[in-house]
């Protein structure tokens, strides 16, 4: 026996199921092509002196006589503004990075100020000292080589410590 709908009564159950089925099917998306999401380019950092002690020049330690430290101010430039940078400071090839000063945190800016501080008593007297700064997004453990080829910024300063107790500096004795 078939029941005929009565006038004024709407059959709603099949309509609800059809609407629910259509809604569920429209929530899924089938992607048939691969999406290429470009990786952010890792640009190497660069280092620029901002203090009176310019890179690649001999710093006369006599100008710092009476001071307990030699401060070198630099600006590290890195277009990867949200990237933490590792740094290493070497004095005559020995790592003298401070435990709390081995990373340069992101600032959201391309230029990041950095002050390197070396106690003057570590520089000795009657000697020529080489201070090196290495900056990268990551180093191979135990070395100054960057993990990614070319991802490094470097700076070198030479310090003439003869006025701190010695009489003359023979630059040929400088570490190489």
Written account of the structure:
- The chain is mainly beta and 176 residues long.
- It is 9% helix and 30% strand.
- The chain has 1 helix and 9 strands, in the order αβββββββββ.
- It has one helix at 13-27; strands at residues 46-49, 58-60, 69-77, 85-91, 94-95, 103-104, 111-119, 128-136, 153-160.
- Strands 2, 4, 5, 6, 8 and 9 form a 6-stranded mixed sheet that branches. It has a 3-stranded antiparallel sheet with strand order 1-3-7, with no helix packed on it.
- A hairpin with a 2-residue loop joins strand 4 (85-91) and strand 5 (94-95).
- The radius of gyration is 32 Å and the shape is elongated.
- The model has no long low-confidence stretch (mean pLDDT 78).
Q: Outline of this structure?
A:
The chain is mainly beta and 176 residues long.
Topology readout:
Blueprint: H1 13-27, E1 46-49, E2 58-60, E3 69-77, E4 85-91, E5 94-95, E6 103-104, E7 111-119, E8 128-136, E9 153-160
Parallel strand pairs: 2-9
Antiparallel strand pairs: 1-3, 3-7, 4-5, 4-6, 4-8, 8-9
Q: Which key features would you list for this structure?
A:
176 residues, mainly beta, 6-stranded mixed β-sheet, 1 helix, 9 strands
Provide a count of the helices. Answer: 1
What structural class should be given to the helix and strand makeup? mainly beta
- Given as residue ranges, the uncertain stretches (5+ residues, pLDDT < 50) are none
* Mean pLDDT across all amino acids: 78
What is the number of E strands? 9
The share of residues in helices is under 10%
Global Rg: 32 Å
Largest sheet: 6 strands, mixed
Seen as an oligomer or otherwise, the chain set is single chain
Shape type? elongated
| Proportion of residues in extended strands | 25-35%
Note the gap between the termini. 105 Å
Order of helices and strands: HEEEEEEEEE
